[in-house]
Amino acid sequence: MSEQKSETEVMREHIVWLSNELVRTREQLRERNEIMRQLLDPELYGWTVPQEIRASIYMLFSQEHQSEVDAWNKK
Q: Exposed site from 35, 58, 73, 75, fewest CB < 10 Å?
């Protein structure tokens, strides 16, 4: 029984760690997306951000959105 409890405790620790990593990663992505959205706004930074950078950001957002749509459609 103690061996099973030990396995259960280990699994719980892994689940807690993975949950914490998921929260941390989501927060990092939120921050990244906010910075990138600010770069897209010409009123915020003026026109200092080149059009090539804006196009790259748009492309990245579009690809991520398409990946999300594809993932939902597979369900």
A: 75
Query: Residue 49 has what DSSP assignment?
Result: S
Cβ atoms of 54 and 40 closer than 8 Å: yes
pLDDT tens string 4-36: 778 889 999 999 999 999 999 999 999 999 999
The total of other beta-carbon atoms located within 10 Å of residue 33's CB is: 14
Nearest residue to 32 (alpha-carbon basis) of 6, 57, 54: 57
Tokens 């689940």 sit at which residue? 15
Q: Residues near 44 by Cβ (< 8 Å), separated by ≥ 6?
A: 38
Domain ranges for the chain, please list them: 2-74
Whole-Å CA distances, 20 to 39, 50, 67? 29, 37, 24
Compute the distance between CA of residue 54 and CA of residue 52 in angstroms, rounded to an integer. 5
